[in-house]
Specification:
heterodimer, A: mainly beta, seven-stranded mixed beta sheet, B: mainly beta, four-stranded antiparallel beta sheet, 11 strands, 49% strand
Chain lengths: 126, 108
């Protein structure tokens, strides 16, 4: 059974930092691209960041570029999202999600999400 | 950036009826790279459709995706009680990846 479990959310003041983690199981984590997607309270979905299977390529939404960093540790089967200079508008549930592509597709990525975690809540408030 | 507009915002239907959800793009979606997701309250989204019309693994055949270019449709034939949820479309043909605002399918 493929599972993604996020952790690390919480309440943080504007301007502070937070690191989210996503533990994977049930598939060969090191072979697939991964995404972070967020959902503000009562709102729709917003793609945040992507990382290739080996971490060599990363892409970001303009709204988080320069403040957030996506990374992965394939030896620990874990995806991360380092969030700096947090703003009130970063308040959301953050989901990690798997891309169907990666090493097994010769580094062809599809950029949709075939497996999602249940999310972790980040609240930025003074 | 491609803006996806979903309509209607809310669809009120009874079990057994057909649901037709629309997703319109502000510009043509490359190679019909459009996906649909279902989200129930308090749950993560679930992939239903990719490539505009291909069902994801384990998705019942009452879910059908169609369309091309700028106009896409998700049809749910014969709504089951578990189908009442919010549905999102997402384009992955160009950067940045974008989602529509969602259509809520509620019980009438």
């Amino acid at each position: 059974q493929v599972h993604l479990v996020e952790s690390g959310g919480g309440v943080v003041q504007p301007g502070r930092s937070l690191r989210l983690s996503c533990a994977a199981s049930g598939f060969t984590f090191s072979s697939y691209g991964m995404h972070w997607v967020r959902q503000a309270p009562g709102k729709g979905l917003e793609w945040v960041a992507f990382i290739s299977y080996d971490g060599s390529n990363t892409y970001y939404a303009d709204s988080v570029k320069g403040r957030f960093t996506i990374s992965r540790d394939n030896s620990k089967i874990t995806l991360y999202l380092h969030m700096n200079s947090l703003r009130v508008e970063d308040t959301a549930v953050y989901y990690c999600a798997k891309d169907p592509g990666g090493k097994t597709t010769l580094s062809t990525y599809y950029y949709y999400m075939d497996v999602w975690g249940r999310g972790t809540t980040v609240t930025v408030s003074s | 950036e491609i803006v996806l507009t979903q309509s209607p915002g809310t669809l009120s239907l009874s079990p057994g009826e057909r649901a037709t959800l629309s997703c319109r793009a502000s510009q043509s979606v490359s190679s019909n790279y459009l996906a649909w997701y279902q989200q129930k309250p308090g749950q993560a989204p679930r992939l239903l459709i990719y490539g505009a019309s291909s069902r994801a693994t384990g998705i019942p055949d009452r879910f059908s995706g169609s369309g091309s270019g700028t106009d896409f449709t998700l049809t749910i034939f014969r709504l089951e009680p578990e189908d009442f949820a919010v549905y999102y479309c997402q384009q992955y043909g160009s950067s940045p990846l974008t989602f529509g605002g969602g259509t809520k399918v509620e019980i009438k």
